[in-house]
Every structure is written in C-alpha cells, then in structure tokens.
Write a structure and sequence with these properties.
six-stranded antiparallel sheet, Signal recognition particle alu RNA binding heterodimer, srp9/1, 4 domains, 13 helices, nine-stranded mixed sheet, 21 strands, alpha+beta
Length: about 550
C-alpha cells in the first residue's frame, strides 16, 4: 500500500468530520474498541498512534449521524441489478468500488436500520456500523477505490431514493416469518391457507428457489424440529408458481442446516478473536456494537459464547453488574534481566522529594491532597521544574479551562508565560490512559472520582499499562478525616511514591510520605516522614521544615 496516499486520505477524512477507525489488514475486524467513536471523532494523536502501530491497517468510516452518512453496500451482481432499479439514469452520489461490489454513500438517513440482507447482496450501514473506505487494501482480494467522477468530496451526497427507503421500511411486513407465524400453530399439516397468501409477491418463477431457501433458513435458525420444517417447505413448494419439485426440498433444508452450523462456528470464532484483541473490562453490548451484530439470535448467541469462554478459563466475570467480563491474562512479557540497563528517570519535585525518592521509568507517583492544600500548585510547579530538561511533558487538567489556566501561569513570578511552550496542556476529565505519552512526563491534575471509589485502582492500572519509559504523577482528592486519597488502599498498589498534602491553616500545610519504594539513599527510609509547607501566590511552594518523623519534631 502506498502509505503516503493512505495517510493523506486519513487526514482528509478526519478534516471533513468523518469518524474513522483502523481495521485489520486481512479482515473486517476493527483494531480498537470503537463504540466510543460512534459518539466522537478520534483525536489526531489517536490516529497517529493507530497507523504507526499498524501502518497497513484499512481505514473504516463510522456510519450514521456522527459522520453524516448512510451507505448501501452491494456485493453481488443480483444485488446491483436490484438496487440500480431504484436509481434514475442521471442519479449520482459518491460511490466506491469494493473487492466484491460497490458502496453507495448517501446523506445520513435517520431511522434506517444498520442491517445485512435487505435483499440478496445488499446491506445497509447506518447508525452503529462502519464501512471500509478507499484507498484501503483487502489482503489479496484487491482494494477499495472511488468510482470515476464519484469521489466523496467531489460530488455531493445524495438523499436515499424514497422508493428504496419505503422498500426497506416495509420489507418486514412481507417477511417469511410473518407468513408462517400467522397460521394456526395447532395445524402443522397446513391443510388450508388464507387467500391472502396468493397475493404475496413471493414463490414466483425466478425467485421461488431463493425464497424457499430463505424460508428453510429462518425455520432452522428458529430451532423448529426437522420433520416440521419438511412439512412446511413441502406445503410452500406445492404452492409455488410453477410448483417446486418436492424432491428438491430436502436439498434446501440441508443447505440451511449447513449454513446455520457454519455461521455459528464463524461467529463463535469471531467473538473469540474480538475477546483476544480487547483489554480491560468489557460487556456483551461492547461485543455486539463492535462486531456490528443486529440479529436477535446473534446477540443471544454472544451470551452463549461468553459462558463457554468463562468455562474454558479465557474470561471471568468482574465488577458488580451482570454481563461484565475481563480477559484472563495468561501471558505477560518476559523481563530479560541481563539486557536491562539500570537507569533512573531524571525528574525534580517540589519539597525536595527527589532527594528522598529515586524515580525510575514506568513509575506512578500519587499526590493526594485535601481541598485547597495545593495539589494544582504542586503539579504546575513539578512541570516548571522539568520543562527545560529535555523531556516531553504532557499536563492533563480536569478542572481548568484555558482562561483559568493562563491566569494561573501568569501568576508565576519566576517564569514568563512564553516559557510554558514546552508543556503540552490538554483538557481531559475521563479516559486519561488514552492521552498518556508512554515515554514522557505525564501529569494528571486531577483524577476525578465522585463515587465507586474502588475504581481508582483500575484507573491507575490503565495509566500504568500505557507507560513505557515515561512516568506519571497523578493528583487525587483527599478527605480531611482519612489518611489516603480517594480510592483508599485500592490506589496504593501501583504507585512507587504516595504523598499526601493536608491543608492546615493558618500554619500552612502538612506533607507526608505514605509510601516510598525507591529510596534515594540506602538505609535512609523516607516512609512516614512529614514536612510543613506554605503556598504563596497559588504556585510557589515553600518548605518550612525538614522531612522528619512526627515524633522527631516533638
């Protein structure tokens, strides 16, 4: 694939407001959990990360309201012939050629389903779906390209023809299930039939073969006993125009059985592969949305597969809600102790903490503070102490907008506003792990949790998993009556340094080292030491006392 061509296309799609996702080079499986990108566009940083990791990934455009498109996917000659019957000779809309057919791009049409099999060879991709877009390649099956003169952006998106919309909306009223379910269940022989059946436009010459197969397929999927299926199909075979040979009914039944068995095997494999690609907690709904499954029986089948995966020890139930699972990790990367270069992470902290704590790559540092104790002052001062040391810094703030942030930075008497250009500030309140730079200094000010405090440990773990050679300093809210910040002991597992800041007006504040695993000086244990400090101008932190054990100060 011409990577430059692909990157140009991806950039253009993003600028036009389309929500895009990376798709496996050799399948139609998204490489990310993409439910959230049905609600928001990915960031440029996310896109860069995806295609850096998998440069030959296909580009998928999320269909529906967010991207403003509804796509008709045609993949057979019969489907093309049927669909083009709804189009006028002068009709034009953006159209791409796929390896097996065409994709017709329309202006978003609210209310149309995201579904397969509108008729043979025709699928609709709408809210909850996605479509593979040019210039993606599809393994050895060719690629996707815009039809001549029909490139998106060069021609306007047309409205879906009213006659086609009407067909989709009304097609369920002539479904095969509505025909046989309307009959008397107590009469499996179906010795009589309502005269309305003769007016239904099915079972006619040219379509009877396909109609009977679809009927057999519906009955097999509905778990009807095979003898009853034979009776139903023989009845309908006799009422075809012209009659369908009864001897060939068995062929339809066996084909339907084989298709259903293969379909379930393929779906089970697809669900297993999705589970293998996922990380963290997930639900049946996540699986359904990201595999774009809309059939009721397929959705129920997901739950069956999940139960098997639990029995097989692949996943386990988690959390306090039904239907939430996590993958059981059976493999983790080996640590080659003979190739490791023992390196520290050069960083400076307020209150001289770097003289007590030895920061190392992939370290988490927690600063838990009471209200007005100086959490933000500590975080901003940490950024200022390191912003000219050659290491990239990303500062994620959950409570300050741009105006307030600039006001806080202008209060730094010792640092001109222009010097802060070396710090990448971002406004972020959730999913902090998505914005972590693996090899940089990351600062989270602060990790907001208003309930379910036990989730703090999980949120910290997700940040930890994103780190490589970088570190992350995380601010937490702390209550005056508790020693630890929000999350309690759940937040103690990953951090190598855990410091609390407690407001103590008018004397100032009290800092305490609750946990320190990497001592700067051997035999000089920092754990439990405290010091007093004061905040000046909202940003200058003055240490008033040395780091001492409480009893040493008395």
């Amino acid at each position: 694939m011409d990577n430059l061509h692909m990157l140009q296309a991806i950039t253009w799609y993003h600028r036009q407001g389309y929500s895009i996702i990376p798709v496996h080079p050799n399948s139609k499986k998204p490489l990310v959990r993409w439910a959230e990108y049905q609600k928001r566009q990915p960031t440029q940083e996310e896109i860069k990360e995806w295609w850096t990791k998998t440069p030959d990934a296909k580009v998928g455009i999320v269909t529906g309201k967010l991207s403003g498109i509804t796509v008709v996917d045609i993949d057979t000659d019969e489907g093309a012939e049927a669909f083009e019957g709804y189009l006028s000779d002068s009709f034009i809309t953006p159209t791409s050629q796929s390896p097996h057919g065409k994709h017709y791009y329309f202006r978003y049409c609210e209310g149309l389903p995201n579904t397969a099999g509108v008729f043979s060879g025709c699928d609709i991709r709408n809210e909850g779906g996605f479509i593979i877009a040019p210039p993606s390649k599809n393994g050895n099956d060719g690629g996707y390209k815009w039809a001549e003169g029909c490139k998106i952006g060069h021609v306007a998106l047309a409205e879906i023809p009213d006659s086609f919309k009407e067909y989709i909306i009304n097609s369920s009223s002539t479904s095969y299930t509505s025909i046989y379910n309307s009959k008397n269940d107590a009469n499996p022989e179906l010795t009589s039939v309502d005269n309305e059946l003769t007016r239904v436009d099915i079972l006619q010459s040219g379509t009877r073969d396909e109609d009977l197969f679809h009927l057999a397929n519906h009955l097999v999927k509905g778990r009807m006993p095979i003898p009853s299926i034979r009776k139903y199909l023989k009845f309908f075979a006799c009422h075809c125009e012209p009659p369908f040979p009864p001897a060939e009914v068995e062929i339809k039944i066996q084909s339907a059985l084989k298709r259903t068995n293969n379909s379930e095997k393929n779906l089970a494999q697809e669900i297993r592969e999705w589970v293998e690609l996922t990380s963290g907690d997930f639900s049946v709904t996540n699986c359904r949305q990201e595999l774009t499954l809309v059939d009721t029986k397929e959705i129920k089948y997901i739950s069956q597969v999940m139960k098997r995966l639990v029995s097989d020890g692949v996943i386990e139930k988690t959390g306090n809600k039904n239907g939430i699972f996590r993958k059981i990790e059976t493999e983790s990367p080996d640590i080659d102790i003979f190739s490791i270069q023992k390196e520290t992470f050069p960083i400076r902290f307020p209150l001289g903490l770097h003289d007590l704590f030895l920061a190392m790559p992939k370290n988490i540092i927690i600063v838990a503070g009471t209200q007005d104790a100086g959490k933000t002052a500590f975080m901003l001062r940490t950024a200022s102490l390191n912003m000219n040391r050659g290491t990239e810094i990303r500062y994620l703030t959950s409570e300050m907008g741009g105006v307030e942030l600039v006001s806080r930075l202008e209060d730094f008497e010792d640092i001109p506003l222009g010097d802060w250009k070396n710090v990448n500030f971002k406004e972020c309140a959730t999913n902090f792990q998505d914005y972590i730079l693996p090899d940089a200094i990351n600062i989270i000010d602060y990790l907001e949790v208003t309930d379910s405090f036990w989730l703090v440990g999980e949120m910290i773990r997700k940040v930890f998993d994103r780190l490589n050679d970088g570190i992350c300093i995380i601010a937490l809210q702390k209550d005056f009556k508790t020693e630890l910040g929000r999350g309690g002991s759940f937040g103690l597992e990953k951090p190598r340094l855990y410091v609390t800041l407690t407001s103590n007006p008018p004397a100032g504040g009290l800092a305490k080292i609750v946990k320190c695993k990497n001592w700067k000086i051997k035999n000089h244990n920092p754990n439990g030491r405290e010091c007093s400090f004061k905040i000046r101008n909202g940003n200058e932190i003055r240490q008033l006392t040395e780091w001492e054990y409480p009893h040493a100060k008395n």
